[in-house]
Amino acid sequence: MPETLARAKQFGPEVNLETALRAGDLLGGHYVQGHVDGTGRIRAVEPEGDSRRVTIEAPPEILRYCVEKGSIAVDGVSLTIAGLTDEEFEVALVRHTLEATTLGSVEPGEDVNLEVDVLAKYVERLAAR
């Protein structure tokens, strides 16, 4: 889709896919739709025990929807924002995420696709009226 390609980094040979939530299923995570709102760049990857803390630079149009302990999808993986500044956010990747997704191999300087929390976008739109 041209609209997605205009907003996204180039997709590699592997992508992260999650099955859709079915009506009646328990909601045990974040609202992720599979869209790409923009891109960010990995600034740092720091080990934390058997986990890693990843710092991602993001443009203001993405960061405006970010809150600490809120959600964001990075390359299609729904994560919790562990830290936030005016220029970047941090996520903590647990061992399962490192092993089961493409995020286990990210390095500083790499671009990543970002999807912000859709609920934040709805709140912004409704509050502007």
Structural write-up:
The protein is an alpha+beta fold. 20% of the residues lie in helices and 33% in strands. The protein has a six-stranded antiparallel barrel. The model has no long low-confidence stretch (mean pLDDT 89).
Q: β content, as a range?
A: 25-35%
Instruction: Provide the spatial order of strands within the biggest beta sheet.
Output: 1-2-5-4-3-6
> Average pLDDT value?
89
- Determine Rg (CA atoms, Å): 15 Å
Continuous helix count = 4
Distance between the termini: 31 Å
Task: State the shape.
Answer: globular
Work out the helicity level. Answer: 10-25%
The strand count comes to 6
The unreliable regions are none
Q: Describe the largest sheet.
A: 6 strands, antiparallel, barrel
Structural class determined from secondary elements: alpha+beta
Order of helices and strands: HEEHEEEHEH
Secondary-structure map:
Blueprint: H1 2-7, E1 38-48, E2 51-57, H2 60-63, E3 71-74, E4 77-84, E5 88-93, H3 95-100, E6 111-116, H4 118-127
Antiparallel strand pairs: 1-2, 1-6, 2-5, 3-4, 3-6, 4-5
Describe the structure concisely.
This protein is α+β, with helices and mostly antiparallel strands and 129 residues long. It has four helices and six strands; from the N terminus they run αββαβββαβα. The mean pLDDT is 89.
List keywords for this structure.
129 residues, alpha+beta, six-stranded antiparallel barrel, 4 helices
